UniProtKB/TrEMBL annotation:
<dbReference type="GO" id="GO:0005829">
    <property type="term" value="C:cytosol"/>
</dbReference>
<dbReference type="GO" id="GO:0030425">
    <property type="term" value="C:dendrite"/>
</dbReference>
<dbReference type="GO" id="GO:0043195">
    <property type="term" value="C:terminal bouton"/>
</dbReference>
<keyword id="KW-0677">Repeat</keyword>
<dbReference type="GO" id="GO:0099509">
    <property type="term" value="P:regulation of presynaptic cytosolic calcium ion concentration"/>
</dbReference>
<keyword id="KW-0479">Metal-binding</keyword>
<dbReference type="Pfam" id="PF00036">
    <property type="entry name" value="EF-hand_1"/>
</dbReference>
<dbReference type="GO" id="GO:0005509">
    <property type="term" value="F:calcium ion binding"/>
</dbReference>
<feature type="domain" description="EF-hand">
    <location>
        <begin position="140"/>
        <end position="175"/>
    </location>
</feature>
<feature type="domain" description="EF-hand">
    <location>
        <begin position="93"/>
        <end position="128"/>
    </location>
</feature>
<keyword id="KW-0106">Calcium</keyword>
<dbReference type="Pfam" id="PF13499">
    <property type="entry name" value="EF-hand_7"/>
</dbReference>
<dbReference type="GO" id="GO:1900271">
    <property type="term" value="P:regulation of long-term synaptic potentiation"/>
</dbReference>
<comment type="similarity">
    <text>Belongs to the calbindin family.</text>
</comment>
<dbReference type="InterPro" id="IPR011992">
    <property type="entry name" value="EF-hand-dom_pair"/>
</dbReference>
<dbReference type="InterPro" id="IPR051001">
    <property type="entry name" value="Calbindin_Ca-bind"/>
</dbReference>
<dbReference type="InterPro" id="IPR018247">
    <property type="entry name" value="EF_Hand_1_Ca_BS"/>
</dbReference>
Length: 228
């Protein structure tokens, strides 16, 4: 009976017939407002992980390293206002929306969102570090490095710092770890920066970024199986 039920379910909602339910297909199962909340950010992705980390800092008001239910509720309230969908949504409705988003994105079911779970709710246009050039397939050029630097140096002050640095490290961490939290990011930051003669001023320069990107390309090249 379960097999038949699954077959009926997949036939109804698996529009692209890939055997999986993706976000857009999942949204069809939700009431209209939850459907809207789910898809608004997928249709309007963030420019980069720098913006993501700024939003994370804004809503992780207690600095716990997680977005808890009340913080998520505030985020959803502001999201609805930003989209001009609803200006005055009741507290009960917001709690209902929060519960729905937690059910969808809280994959480890601890009642809050860690970094990697929030990143699914708040996607960015592209993790630039996933491009072929950083996989060792082609030689990394000065232009490639400059492009990455300008992507993360959002205030154009000549260094990558604060949320810019954490956005870069988040993208870097995603290449090696699917599920991660704020503590993982902190430990990763310490490991990466120790290798580039990092000073305690909380910034990285073009030279340090170059060292990290060259190490990344070299590592990926070594990881790829050699062709006979």
């Amino acid at each position: 009976m379960l097999v038949e039920l699954k077959a009926c379910f997949m036939e109804a909602y698996d529009d692209n017939q890939d055997g999986k339910i993706d976000i857009r297909e999942l949204a069809q199962l939700l009431p209209m407002e939850e459907n809207f909340l789910l898809l608004f950010r997928f249709d309007n992705p963030l420019e980069s992980s720098v913006e993501f980390m700024k939003i994370w800092r804004e809503y992780d008001t207690d600095g716990s390293g997680y977005i808890e239910a009340d913080e998520l509720k505030n985020f959803l309230r502001d999201l609805l206002k930003e989209a001009k969908k609803i200006n005055d949504v009741s507290e009960d409705k917001l709690i209902e929306y929060t519960d729905t988003m937690l059910q969808v994105f809280d994959s480890n079911k601890d009642g809050r969102l860690q970094l990697s779970e929030m990143a699914k709710l708040l996607p960015v246009k592209e993790n630039f570090l996933c491009r072929q050039v950083f996989k060792g397939a082609t030689k990394l050029t000065k232009d490639d490095i400059e492009r990455v630097f300008s992507l993360y140096d959002r205030d154009n002050n000549g260094s990558i710092e604060n949320e810019e640095l954490r956005g870069f490290l988040k993208d870097l961490l995603e290449l090696v770890k699917k599920d991660y939290d704020a503590q993982d990011l902190l430990e990763f930051e310490e490991t990466i920066l120790q290798g580039v003669e990092y000073s305690s001023d909380g910034k990285i320069s073009r030279k340090q970024l170059t060292m990290i990107l060259l190490a990344l390309a070299k590592h990926n090249q070594e990881e790829e199986p050699s062709t006979p």
